[in-house]
Every structure is written in C-alpha cells, then in structure tokens.
Design a protein that fits this description.
Length: about 210
C-alpha cells in the first residue's frame, strides 16, 4: 500500500490562502506548499519556496510576502521599504529556489525535518517560472490613485522606486510574474479561463 502524502497547508494566513487557491486552480496532486531544501546530510534545512507547482514540463515557484505598507511615513520612503521587502525579497527567494531545483532536484522535502522526500519527478528540461505574490499595499495604492482595486500600475520604463508602479524585474536566469492585491484573479481569469498550455505561456509576461 502506498504511503499517504502529507502536504503542508501553509504557515501564515496568506500562505494558507495561496495553498487553497493553488488546490482549486492546479489540483492538489500538482501543488505543494512550504517545501524545504537540504544541500547535504549535515546542513540545516532551509525553506525552498512558499509554493511549488509542477505540471508536465512546467514548474512554478511561488514566493508569498505580506508586508504592511507604512502609511504614516513619507510616501517615497514607505514605498521603497515595501518594495524591497515584498518584491525584491521575493525575487531573491525565487531565483535561489530555481537554482537549487536545477542543481539538486532530489534534495527537496515536504517537511522541515527532511524525512519526507518530494514525491514528484523534476523534469530534466523543465521550464521554470516564478510568481511573486506581493501583498499589503492595496489600500495605500487605492488611496494614492484615488480609484482602482489596489493593484499596482505597470510600466516597463519606470524606476523601481516609483510609488505604486511595478517595472521590469526580469532576471537573466528566469521570468518572474508579480501578483498583487487582486490575487483572486489568478483563479478566476488567468488559470481557469485559459488552457494550461496557454496559461504557462502567459507567465512570460513580466508583471500583472
């Protein structure tokens, strides 16, 4: 008899919501929250990513950050702090996870004790995508623009510290998509309305 796979359900409230959303979107056989990585038998376990989804040759690495926007600070300072903690930290986590998946795919585990190996085979020529879920600035964004649903504006020409505008965070090694306050659209429009092949192709977009 095969052993049951006990997946994490997420640790923080936002990670738990992300796990539920992934189960409804990708099915729970493909999505695994809060995975861990161990580079050697003597090294400590480290969190790999907040959610990993595998579907055929495609892998999606999620980093979830809910950072409170400091509305009592100067807008330029508050935005810079939020951006660094929510977007830049997610980018670094995603890039590190992608490198580890490529280098040592058999060193991934379901639990912090690293007693339960990741049950799925990592494709040798996998196409790996990153999604940064950056939350916490929605209300401040709506107040700043005086309208909208809290999603950040998009401009490929903006500087990274332009308040409430996301520019190009493309890394030479990967493609990273940003999802902000309207994370529910991930299920209701992008993933549910498109065939999976088209959805994965759309991950080449830089930000939403």
């Amino acid at each position: 008899m095969s052993e049951a796979i006990n997946r994490s359900l997420g640790i923080t409230p936002s990670e738990q919501n992300l796990a539920i959303l992934a189960d409804k979107t990708f099915l729970n056989l493909w999505s695994y929250p809060n995975l861990y990585y161990k580079s050697s038998d003597t090294s400590p376990a480290q969190e790999l990513c907040d959610l990993l989804v595998i579907c055929g040759e495609h892998i999606i690495v999620f980093s979830d950050k809910h950072i409170n926007f400091q509305i009592d600070k100067d807008i330029e300072i508050a935005w810079k702090r939020w951006y660094n903690r929510a977007v830049e930290h997610s980018k670094k986590q995603i890039i590190k996870a992608i490198n580890r998946i490529k280098a040592n795919p058999h060193n991934i585990f379901l639990d912090k004790e690293c007693s339960k190996p990741f049950p799925l085979e990592i494709p040798k020529n996998a196409k790996i995508h990153g999604i940064a879920v950056a939350l916490g600035a929605g209300e401040a964004c709506k107040s700043f623009f005086g309208e909208g649903n809290g999603s950040l504006a998009i401009s490929t020409y903006c500087h990274e510290y332009t308040p409430f505008v996301i520019g190009d965070i493309q890394d030479l090694r990967s493609s990273i998509l940003i999802v902000t306050e309207e994370v529910a659209m991930f299920r209701s429009s992008a993933a549910r309305a498109l065939p999976l092949a088209n959805f994965f192709a759309n991950l080449e977009v830089r930000a939403v």
